[in-house]
Write a structure and sequence with these properties.
Order of helices and strands: HHHHHHHHHHHHHHHHHH
Number of domains: 1
Number of helices: 18
Structural class: mainly alpha
Largest sheet: none
Length: about 375
């Protein structure tokens, strides 16, 4: 089966990753390195986890569209062990990131924070993170192993595919449960006196958006390099991916607005300050931008069937969706640090490029190491270009 080679891509990604991390370390020596690392880690690990949930959903749904994007999704899922390694600096920087590691009586919300220390303590935090990554890596290994087995056994491909589909529902449940707690541990606990039951849901749908948007871009690039992918990436299947992007964007806006309305209308002293900081001067412009250009404009544009069926137009919308989710993560995380002036620093950009460069290096290596389309996947049997 055909493989797609990326001759210069992995090298360029590796060089950018190395330079980015070097600049990030040097620029962040004084302060802020761990803040930048956590911000970049949440985005790139979220992208890998988004691939995991879309892989499970694709197996459950069936259809040629899900088999068509199988290899890009598997390439993203294969990076979860790398993301576990990238979590180590977060552990080293816990004292600089999380105020609950050493609460003092003068800390705002001190009584609420101390009441949560049975859950928010370093040993339990580390143990939970180990469980999350163990389950995610196990899911990735099982999916990748079953896919490789299906490639080698044409006679048993249908049975293997059925087993994968039967197990995918379980992994969707595992993903939702683990990300519910991981979102609270890694991001929400930056403000430990604050709590929201919707917070982790927003992170999960953001991961799905980034995965779908990234996959759309990758599929269009692959279609230029592979005649087989080009034949399968019809206007109808492209529209299917565009519909996912539109539906996920709608749900992201819904849960984000729901969280705002519930917390703001509750008018609880411990909860309102989270949004007060994010609707203050400077950040209120970001909030308005996310509403107008992160949801309303893309929602209207993606209603167009032409946009979802045109490769160039859909790639532009996918790239915009990635930018919006990056900005949304900044909006969620950076105000916690209380930075003055322009909140994005050189360290933020450098570390983001550094981790992203290494992410892309391993992603492209994995993508080029296997046939670009599954060999014996029954979902592709009889699939003909249409639309």
């Amino acid at each position: 089966m055909e493989r797609v080679a990326f001759q210069r891509g992995p090298t360029v990604a590796l060089v950018l990753g190395g330079l980015g991390l070097a600049v990030g370390v040097i620029a962040g020596l004084g302060q802020g390195f761990y803040q930048s690392w956590l911000l970049a880690f949440l985005f790139w690990s979220g992208l890998a986890l988004g691939h995991l949930i879309m892989l499970a959903v694709g197996h459950m749904a069936g259809g040629s569209w899900s088999a068509m994007i199988l290899r890009p999704l598997e390439a993203g899922v294969s990076l979860l062990p790398i993301m576990a390694l990238f979590f180590i600096p977060v552990l080293f920087g816990m004292n600089a990131l999380y105020v609950w590691t050493n609460p003092t009586p003068d800390l705002e919300g001190y009584k609420l924070i101390t009441a949560k220390l049975a859950y928010l303590n370093v040993p339990f935090f580390v143990a939970r993170a180990g469980v999350y990554f163990a389950l995610w890596i196990l899911a990735a290994w099982l999916f990748l192993r079953a896919s490789a087995k299906q490639d080698r056994n044409p006679n048993d491909s249908a049975q293997i595919g059925y087993r994968i589909k039967a197990q995918s529902g379980l992994w969707v449940v595992v993903y939702v449960l683990t990300m519910t707690f991981a979102g609270r541990d890694w991001a929400m606990s930056l403000t430990p006196a604050w709590w929201s039951g919707i917070y982790s849901v927003i992170l999960m749908i953001s991961q799905a958006i980034t995965a779908v948007a990234f996959t759309i871009i990758v599929m269009v690039v692959l279609a230029r390099r592979s005649a087989a992918v080009d034949a399968l990436l019809t206007r109808k299947r492209l529209q299917d991916l565009g519909n996912f992007l539109m539906a996920f964007t709608m749900f992201w806006a819904y849960v984000s607005f729901s969280q705002l309305i519930i917390i703001w209308s509750g008018n609880i002293t411990e909860l309102a300050p989270w949004y007060t900081a994010r609707l203050a001067d400077g950040w209120n412009a970001v909030a308005g931008f996310l509403l107008a250009f992160g949801f309303l404009a893309p929602f209207v544009i993606l209603f167009s069937r032409w946009v979802k069926q045109d490769r160039r137009a859909l790639v532009i919308m996918a790239g915009w969706a990635l930018f919006v989710q990056m900005l949304n993560l900044v909006f969620f995380i950076v105000p916690t640090y209380g930075r003055e002036g322009f909140p994005i620093t050189l360290t933020d950009v450098a570390v983001w490029v550094g981790i992203g460069g290494l992410w892309m290096f391993f992603y492209l290596r994995r993508l080029s190491a296997h046939p670009i389309l599954p060999i014996n996947d029954p979902r592709l049997k009889g699939a003909e270009p249409h639309g």
